[in-house]
Specification:
By secondary structure, the protein is mainly α. The protein contains ten helices and no strands. The model has no long low-confidence stretch (mean pLDDT about 85).
């Protein structure tokens, strides 16, 4: 499964067209922050749909960038879903780490204990709130409706699946390592393209796992 996912962004012919366009949009976003990233989100939505719909024995087709209008609308829906899901976790971490725990000295015995417990609890809560996000993105992309982001049947079926958990952890780890190497890669102008490649692989992994979870439950 992993070799197939790693090959997904360059599958088909021509092999590098999607990668070049996606990396170029990331580069363009340095000067024009919004529209290029909405287009990237729209393309990732198509990746989520294509991989979620593929049968277990089939290889998902890599989507095209056209038509552009629906792509931008899909991107806006995904962006709105991300904002909706991340607002509470980000606020929780900001308030916790920048509020009650800010004045605590983590080197002290008692204060250190409070600091460790507080940061651990807030981090776990933030993770628990973020965990359904990938499934919600697949649901929104497939249904083309923001209501799907809070569809307990679709989102819940995925989050209870072990394959989904593995896919989310692998996707998060891969994206984390990619972003950590971003500055070094950009020294030779590769960061924008490697980041897009990692985003497509992560989307394909989550889409595949979510689609299989839904298939097992007849959704």
């Amino acid at each position: 499964m992993i070799p197939s996912l790693l090959a997904y962004p360059v599958r088909g012919s021509p092999r590098l067209d999607a990668l070049v366009v996606g990396g170029g949009l990331h580069l363009l976003a340095v000067w024009l922050p919004l529209a290029p990233l909405v287009a990237v989100a729209g393309y990732l939505a198509r990746v989520l749909v294509a991989t979620a719909a593929a049968e277990p024995h089939e290889t998902a087709e890599r989507p095209d960038w056209r038509p552009l209008g629906p792509l931008l609308r899909d991107g806006l829906r995904l962006a709105a879903t991300v904002v909706g899901y991340l607002t509470i976790p980000v606020a929780l971490l900001t308030v916790t780490l920048g509020g009650p725990l800010e004045g605590i000295d983590p080197t002290g015995a008692t204060d250190g204990l409070f600091f460790i417990v507080g940061t651990t609890v807030s981090t776990l809560l933030a993770f628990a709130l973020c965990y359904p996000l990938p499934a919600a993105l697949v649901a929104v992309a497939r249904e083309r409706s923001l209501r799907a982001a809070v569809d307990a049947t679709l989102v819940g079926a995925a989050t209870r699946d072990a394959g989904y958990l593995v896919a989310v952890l692998l996707a998060a780890g891969g994206l984390g390592m990619t972003f950590a190497a971003y500055d070094a890669l950009n020294a030779v102008a590769l960061g924008f393209f490697v980041v897009f490649y990692a985003e497509v692989v992560a989307a394909a992994a989550v889409g595949t796992a979510t689609g299989r979870a839904w298939e097992r439950r007849g959704l």
